[in-house]
Amino acid sequence: MHQPLFGGWIEVVCGPMFAGKTEEIIRRIRRLEYAKKNVLVFKPTIDDRYSSSEIVSHNKTKAKSININKAIEILDYIKEGVDAVVIDEAQFLDNDVIWVSETLADRGIRVIIGGLDRDFRGEPFGPMPQLLAIAEFVQKLTAVCVVTGQPATRTQRLINGKPASYNDPIVLVGASEAYEPRSRDSHEVRNKPKHDE
Ligand SMILES: Nc1ncnc2c1ncn2[C@@H]1O[C@H](COP(=O)(O)OP(=O)(O)O)[C@@H](O)[C@H]1O
Ligand SMILES: Cc1cn([C@H]2C[C@H](O)[C@@H](COP(=O)(O)O)O2)c(=O)[nH]c1=O
Ligand SMILES: [Zn+2]
């Protein structure tokens, strides 16, 4: 595999839905392209929301991507001369994405990861906590809360207009028909267990 002169690293862009994670990742991809770098973009197959062959932001900026079902599949695409690997919607991937990212960065590749830090319950989502821990660089973005107008750090899931229940399935691919960005004080989860005092 590619042995570059300079070290690689891991960057994570996280935050709630509508915070601009995908836009920010596409901005980084474009800059790498201007620099004539060889970039590979991946997303989990489950994310077929706007396109099955592109990462697409809520305001429809897009970049070509490769679908993967498991993180380890990324390694099949790594050939001599790959400069950067981008993974969007990393919250949906298995925990292998952690060592795969480390392996790529150790081999001199810039790894750019986008994903939700929290699920609709407000709890850490999939491999994101570990990815945040191992990353050299982290950008936590916020959206605008549709209730308070304050920075939104959480994602509200609404089912038939009502807050989803804590026990609902964690994975539900969707956009504004089921989700909206909310600040801490306006985020609601039905049946959420209370912590002991
Ligand atoms: N309440 C909101 N706050 C911020 N952006 C919003 C909001 N509702 C819709 N948007 C749109 O979402 C875009 C960000 O989309 P995207 O990059 O796909 O976000 P993410 O990947 O974090 O879900 C914004 O540029 C804006 O056009
Ligand atoms: C909060 C939450 C979200 N999802 C899904 C919904 C979307 O398909 C993606 C997030 O996409 P974005 O680029 O961040 O807008 O994740 C989910 O399955 N479960 C959740 O709890
Ligand atoms: Zn996104």
UniProtKB/TrEMBL annotation:
<dbReference type="GO" id="GO:0004797">
    <property type="term" value="F:thymidine kinase activity"/>
</dbReference>
<protein>
    <recommendedName>
        <fullName>Thymidine kinase</fullName>
        <ecNumber>2.7.1.21</ecNumber>
    </recommendedName>
</protein>
<dbReference type="InterPro" id="IPR001267">
    <property type="entry name" value="Thymidine_kinase"/>
</dbReference>
<dbReference type="Pfam" id="PF00265">
    <property type="entry name" value="TK"/>
</dbReference>
<feature type="region of interest" description="Disordered">
    <location>
        <begin position="177"/>
        <end position="197"/>
    </location>
</feature>
<keyword id="KW-0963">Cytoplasm</keyword>
<feature type="binding site">
    <location>
        <begin position="15"/>
        <end position="22"/>
    </location>
    <ligand>
        <name>ATP</name>
    </ligand>
</feature>
<keyword id="KW-0808">Transferase</keyword>
<feature type="binding site">
    <location>
        <begin position="88"/>
        <end position="91"/>
    </location>
    <ligand>
        <name>ATP</name>
    </ligand>
</feature>
<keyword id="KW-0418">Kinase</keyword>
<feature type="compositionally biased region" description="Basic and acidic residues">
    <location>
        <begin position="179"/>
        <end position="197"/>
    </location>
</feature>
<keyword id="KW-0237">DNA synthesis</keyword>
<keyword id="KW-0547">Nucleotide-binding</keyword>
<dbReference type="InterPro" id="IPR027417">
    <property type="entry name" value="P-loop_NTPase"/>
</dbReference>
<feature type="active site" description="Proton acceptor">
    <location>
        <position position="89"/>
    </location>
</feature>
<comment type="subunit">
    <text>Homotetramer.</text>
</comment>
<keyword id="KW-0067">ATP-binding</keyword>
<comment type="similarity">
    <text>Belongs to the thymidine kinase family.</text>
</comment>
